[in-house]
UniProtKB/TrEMBL annotation:
This is Cupin. Signal peptide: none annotated.
């Protein structure tokens, strides 16, 4: 899968009972610390607020879409 810059996309696990593993190649590797931080937060049982998520995204040059998207 290729996600173009600023393209609206998501990753999820639709199961509420089965764990999922996510394998991804990111080039350049700049975003790996973003995903490590997000996975560490989830592993610790924490949930980031919208503001915390947007702050983390901004640190890595990632921004939410300009429009509301459907879930």
């Amino acid at each position: 899968m290729v996600v173009p810059p600023r393209a609206i996309h998501t990753f999820s696990n639709p199961s509420e009972t089965e764990p999922a593993e996510f394998f991804m190649t990111s080039t350049p590797g700049y975003y790996m610390d973003y995903f490590r931080t997000m996975s560490k937060t989830v592993a610790e049982g924490k949930k980031l607020s919208r503001e915390e998520t947007q702050h983390l995204m901004a640190l890595f040059g990632t921004f939410p879409p300009d429009v509301e998207s459907e879930p």
